[in-house]
Amino acid sequence: MSFITGVGLTSYGKHEGSSSLDLMSQAAELAVTDAGLKRADIDGILCGYSTVSPHIMLATVFAEHFGIRPSYAHAVQVGGATGLAMTMLAHQLVDAGVAKHVLVVGGENRLTGQSRDASILALAQVGHPEYEVPLGPTIPAYYGLVATRYMHEYGMTQEDLAEFAVLMRKHALTHPGAQFHDAISVADVMNSKPVALPLKLLDCCPVSDGGAAFVISRERTNEAGVRVMGCAQAHTHQHVTAAPALSELGAEIAIAKAKAASGVAISDVRYAAIYDSFTITLAMLLEDLGLAGRGEAAARVRSGYFNGDGAMPLNTHGGLLSYGHCGVGGAMAHLVETHLQMTGRAGNRQVRDASIALLHGDGGVLSSHVSMFLEQVR
Amino acid sequence: MSGNQALADWTKGEAAIVYQSCNACGGLQYFRRSFCAACGAPDPVEKRASGEGTVYATSLVCRAATPETRAHVPYNIILVDAAEGFRMMAHGDHDLAIGDKVIARFELFTGRLVPYFVRSK
Q: Is the CB of residue A196 less than 8 Å from the CB of residue B73?
């Protein structure tokens, strides 16, 4: 049994002068306080990585900086799936009695700490060093390849993809911490600068500064009753060249295992927090996970199904596409928002019912997947 | 380690595409290793590919990340299913569509030889 007892999130965008450790510390302080705990109560630390400040022992660097002497600590690296992978591990650690309160933290000054080119270059290194990287691909190009194939097989269009960017922006407009505050239309997405076709600038998440953290505990520490029901991973490849067919990707494997571990069905889910590095990522994952039929996700966006007041509220903070993406912390914001929704603290974004939530993270080029179900307990 | 002659390919500056074939399980792989990733058997045989294939996916890169690659934009990154049965990444003509039959040529990109596919008919 494990509970998410506290969450912390900074605004995303520019944090001029803040280091990765500063942003991690801000989020961690918020999460520990939110859990009603003191720093000394934390006996486990899991952290992600920082491309701006790489370190072989980031967890202990952070622990020392933050002022904690944990009995368990190390970093985790699974690209965009890192946040949920750390949460899964924290769940298992507290469940196994290794630690009582595990602090999970990610943060990076990715926007102001390095040039955008440096970020794009660092991320392109998820490609194969001999067989892919010399061809000059970028992360958007890897996903652009997936997008053309998905569009070819399932009839999705660029206008369909644009709907997801518009939806995430609409949600971000209601969150003061989001990086973007201007409404966009499908036409704006279609007319935005080409990056790696079919993906255009507004199909891509931004580079951001920010930090996010949670505390996962064996027992509840406060009013917040958010229990991890079950979770699972799947890793089918690293490089897009070696990816299996679209019908055999890891999202479907991970969700099937997570459903079995949790004893729930997709029809039980009331809130969805799904990785959205690009519009194609979100569209595909929604369909892979069963939150929409094949080729039907865009129609569900248009009908309001994924709105805050829709049948399946989705990334109500604006997601990576519009709240922002600071690396490991990026998709952790999805979990923070889920927690706020499940504990009735989402303010003007509060949804009617978030009693069971599905979270899904993706790392690499649909390489690594983590699916997780959370349950509101009273 | 390997009893097979290592064949030079475009990653070594040769105008060639090379893949590996496993004698034990028949598995094919494009990324060179000293063993078969499907069954673990050592010494997969290196073979030179015909350069023929079918386009699996494309993405026209319009925003590159380095001065060297920026000089080439836009360039079309493609995945090709080789006739021999393995998949590879390459460059290709901008108007290639998924399903097109293609044949490999080689072009210079950032001073290196890279496979570049054009329609074969």
A: no
- B69: closest chain A residue by CA: A136
The CA-based angle B103-B104-B106, given to 5 degrees, is: 155
Sequence-ordered list of residues with C-beta below 8 angstroms from that of B111, at least 6 positions apart, any chain: B68
CA B55, B59, B64, B67 dihedral sign is positive
- Establish whether this prediction's ipTM goes over 0.85: yes
Rg (CA), chain B: 15
Model confidence over A315-372: pLDDT tens digits? 999 999 999 999 999 999 999 999 999 999 999 999 999 999 999 999 999 999 999 9
- Given an 8 Å threshold on Cβ–Cβ distance, is A135 in contact with B109? yes
How many inter-chain contacts (A to B, CB under 8 Å) are there?
108
Domains (ranges, CATH) in chain A?
Answer: 3-113+208-217 (3.40.47.10)
pLDDT of A90 over the 50 cut: yes
A279-329 pLDDT tens trace: 999 999 999 999 999 999 999 999 999 999 999 999 999 999 999 999 999
DSSP per-residue letters across A21-60: HHHHHHHHHHHHHHTT--GGG--EEEE---SSS--TTHHH
Min Cα separation B77/chain A (Å): 7
The shortest CB-CB distance from B31 to any of A131, A193, A197 is to A131
- A residues 199-228 lying closer than 8 A (beta carbon) to B: 199
- The minimal CB distance from A136 to the residues B11, B31, B61 is found for B61
Give the separation between CA A370 and CA A376, rounded to whole angstroms.
20
Give domain limits for chain B.
Answer: 1-48, 52-119
> What value does the mean pLDDT of chain B take?
95
